[in-house]
Amino acid sequence: MALNKNPKVDLKRKYRRYFETSLIISLLMIIAAFKYFPQFDKGDVKFDAPQELIDVEDVEHTKQEAAPPPPPKPPIPIEAPSDDVLEDIEIADTELDIDAAVSAPPPPPKEKEDEDVEPVFFIAVEEMPEPIGGIATIQSKIVYPEIAKRAGVQGRVFVKAFVDENGVVTKVELIRGIGAGCDEAAMEAVKKTQFKPGKQRGKPVKVQVTVPVLFKLQ
Questions:
Q1: Rounded to an integer, what distance in angstroms lies between the CA atom of residue 91 and that of residue 62?
Q2: Greatest CA span in the chain, whole angstroms?
Q3: Residue 148: inside a domain, yes or no?
Q4: How far is CA 204 from CA 1, 123, 124, 157, 180, in A?
């Protein structure tokens, strides 16, 4: 059920009256203002700072010229066959004589065997080579260098010895040395020593073995 408003407290009934009254009062105030205050005092504006003149120069626009395209690559000359060359060619007779005897081609030349082939030495075998008389034999053959004695050089030199089937040292190589002439002395002592040959399945074979040589001052 809708509620009826009391006409005494309804504000919407007086909106039109209030609007017309306000509009009339505003117009009267504007007319009075133009009638009694027609002029306004104008003041001159003064600038204390001096005015600067700025010269504006016209800047010419730079024109970018496009680079000319590269010249085309010259064609590769192709040699054409000459008529003079073709006339000089002689064509041999290609007829095959079936009854002609054909000789066998010569045998190919035998390849020369390389006599300087390095022999193969085993690294590990069942019985490794040993110096006859033991390491003491090698130590007895060492000549201690004088420069090593003066410098007090001591240590152990490791030499690789290549021992053949007869126990002869064919070549020696230095693995690790101490310098001061001790390396050369150790290699020379090992090379002069006779070894007991190494064996594989009871048969003497070529073996390479590492020999330690001690240098110690008394």
A1: 74
A2: 153
A3: yes
A4: 133, 14, 13, 27, 37
Domain that holds residue 177: 130-215
Contact status, residue 126 vs residue 203, Cβ threshold 8 Å: no
φ, ψ at 85 (rounded to 5°): -70, -40
Q: Of residues 117 and 144, which shows the higher confidence score? A: 144
The verdict on pTM exceeding 0.70 is no
Q: How many domains is the chain built from?
A: 1
* 162 pLDDT tier (thresholds 50, 70, 90): very high
Backbone angles phi, psi at 215, to 5 degrees: -115, 115
| Dihedral over Cα of 131, 135, 140, 144: its sign | positive
Q: Tell me, what CATH number does 154's domain have?
A: 3.30.2420.10
On whether residue 113 sits in a domain, the answer given is no
DSSP string, 151-178: HT--EEEEEEEEE-TTS-EEEEEEEE--
215 three-class SS: strand
Tokens 């009339």 locate to: 24
What is the arithmetic mean of pLDDT over 90-105? 65
Q: In this predicted structure, which of 13-27, 105-119, 179-193 has the lowest mean pLDDT?
A: 105-119
**Would you state the pLDDT for residue 200?**
87
Q: Would 34 be classed as within a structural domain?
A: no
Non-local (6+) Cβ contacts of 212 within 8 A are: 135, 156, 157, 158, 159
